[in-house]
Every structure is written in C-alpha cells, then in structure tokens.
Give the backbone structure.
Amino acid sequence: MERTYDILVIDDDAFMRDACHQALSRKGHTTALAKSGREGLALLEESAYDLVLLDLNLPREDGLFILAKIKDIDPDAVVVMISGRGSIETAVQAIKLGAFDFIAKPFTPEELINLVYRALRNRRATRVGKGRRRYAVRRSKPVKIISQSAAMERVKEMVEMVAPTDSTVLLEGPSGTGKGLVARKLHELSPRRSRPFVAVDCGSLVKTLFESELFGHVKGAFTGADSTQQGKFEMARGGTLFFDEISNINLEIQAKLLKAVEEKRISKVGDHKVVDVDVRIISATNGNLKKAISKGLFREDLFFRLNVVSIHLPPLRERGEDIPLLAEHFLRISCNEQGKSIEGFSPNAMKALCQYTWPGNVRELENTVERLVVFAQEDVISTRDLVYSNTVLSRIVDSEPIRLEEMEREHITKVLASVNGNKTQAAQLLGIDRKTLRIKVKKYGIEETSAA
C-alpha cells in the first residue's frame, strides 16, 4: 500500500487551497489548510506535518519570513514554495534559505503530486541511518508560563509534578486563562515531548463530524468521504491529545470517547478494523462539568476517566501581580511582529491595566496590548494611547499631566496643517509674528514639509 502523508497548505487563495487539497486527498494524503502565515505557524506549533506547501506572496506577510519561522519551529521541515508570475527569483532565494523547491502557478495536479513525492523521497533519504522521526520536536523555544503570583506558582508546581507521569489531566478555568498553554507545557515536560501534541477544539467542530475528526474515516464512509483520513487519535499516536472545551462533545461521542480512553483502541468511521493508539489525554473546560453531569449533559464515567488529576487556572483578576509581567511580555512580542520600538508603559497606563477586571483574562490582555502597539505614536504607551486606541481601558484611565510645551507644539502643528503650512497665515491665527513662529517650529522639531 502506498504511504500517505500529512501536508500543510498555506495560501491566501481559497481556490488554490482547495485545488491542492483535492489533488492530495485523492492520493490518500491528509491536508491541513491555512489562509495566512500566522494561521499556518499556529498549526505547526500544535501538530507535525511531513511537508508544507507555502505561498510566496501572502498578503501583509512575507513568504520568506514565514519560511524562516517554519524553520525555527522545525529545522527539518520540508517546504515547497508556491510562486506566481514574477516571483521566480524570490523562489530561488527561498531555496537558498532552506526551501526544498518551488512550483510555479498555474500547475496541474500531476505536477504537484510529482513534486510532493520527490520532496518526500528526498526527506526520507536524508534520514537514513538515523531512523525515521516522523514528528520533530515542536518548538525551538520552551513554553513559558509568565507569572509571579502565588496562585500561578501553585499551578506551575502541579504541572512539574504531573508532567512526567502518564496520568490523564483535566484543566479547569475561565476562557482565556491559558489552559492551552498549560497543556503544551505538560507535554513539553513529559517523556512524550518528541512526539506530536494534537489539539482538538471541541467548540469549533461540527457535531456531525466529531466522530470522523476524532477517529478518522475510510473512503465512502459517508457522503463527501472521498478518501481515507486519519483522525486526531492516530495523528497524536505516541504523544498528547488535548481536548479543548471537552463539554461541547455530545453524549453519543462521549460514549465512544470513553471506550477509546479506556481501551486505547479505535476504529475509523465505516471500518471494523481496530487500531491501537497510545496517547496521553489532557482535557480543558471553562464550565462546571459536575453541573453538566447533574443535567444529563455529560457522562459521569467519562468525567472520572478524564479527571484523574485536576488543575484549576485562576482568572486574571485573581492574579493581578502577573499583569505587569504579562503586559511587558506581550508588548515585546507585538513590537517584534509589527517592527516597532516601544520601551514600555507609563505609570498611569500600567495602573489602568492593573485596575481593569479583564473578563476575557490573559487572552483579552494580549489582544489589548497588540491594539495599543498598533496605535502607539511615542516610545512609551501612555493613557492617551489607551484613549486613542479606543480600548476597554479608556473609561478608567487617570489622565496624565501634559507639559505646556507639548500642548503648544500640538496646537501649532494643527494650525499649520489647517492652512497647508502657510507660516504667515498660521502666525496671524496664533497671534504671534512670523519670526516667533519660525523659532518655535525649529524648537519643537515640527516637520518643515507641513510648515513651509
């Protein structure tokens, strides 16, 4: 039987993504599709792929930059660039930076398949003698849990104690508290670290496809099943399977999941063949599973299977000491991504961050800091940035005093702009002579293009 592979396609063109999926799935390969570089990198952080098809011309992203990021995550990743007209020279540059080859648009399904097989044959050849390691270590940098609060120190202690074991873990806590991060840390510190970490977002899966997503399906199992597909259990074999928002799984699938967890054996949809799967289960929920059990929405026997070790993640409002650390951490990340240089937060801006209750927890804080970096005009984020960026913090900030010189500079700039830089008219409106205006323009470093 011909070997099948897991292939990631990163392309903003929906037609191109679908074309690649159709061509590859007909040969039995499993495909994951990403419409942006960031989305593709997130998938690579969570799962392993035998090959990546990467578009060179992604909107708002440089294909060569994404290639470098992929190589940071997995230095052994096999990447084939998809290049459009006029980008052949860049594609050649990509090869110098580590891509295996490129394929120019438009291409036929046969051309794509031939290149994919050539790339994968080369991949196998380079690993002869070392043994085939299907899944590389997922991260070049360790997972970091940013905290200094007593509440999170207890969480980190539990993680360090539980990670080396094979115990099933249930992570509880509100949305946005970092349950996914803790799950990855548990995997990173476990003996399974070199095997895949596969996440299942139970809240986003279509309920009718749950069984297929978890256990896979064979060709013809149902309408639209054009090829045999692996499920998450098989993808995570030897590693960790993380169920995010486990309470969203319906009762019928809960029964089948319970059997899989107990027996560590599964069957694809439409197939009676039983497959052994060695995975560690980590689950997460933002709700109360005991209440769900009392309402008949969650199986009690499955709960006991998943809840061997329970770790509770506190909301951000209960770990306020961590807010400054997290804010600075997210600031560095956002500045790096957006090419900005911002030193930090003003005292009053940080005070506003610490006073807010953060109903969206760490995820809301991260998104807020990213928005502040987008709108920041100076090298320090101030309360004016909080107001200007229209964040949730704008209602609770204590206005910082503005120096008289700053007010004068801003006023002169606005007046000059209103008269298209005519200094004579601006001086008349300001009630000063033209010489004085010229001195102030020079003093405040007002752009001469707007003060001609």
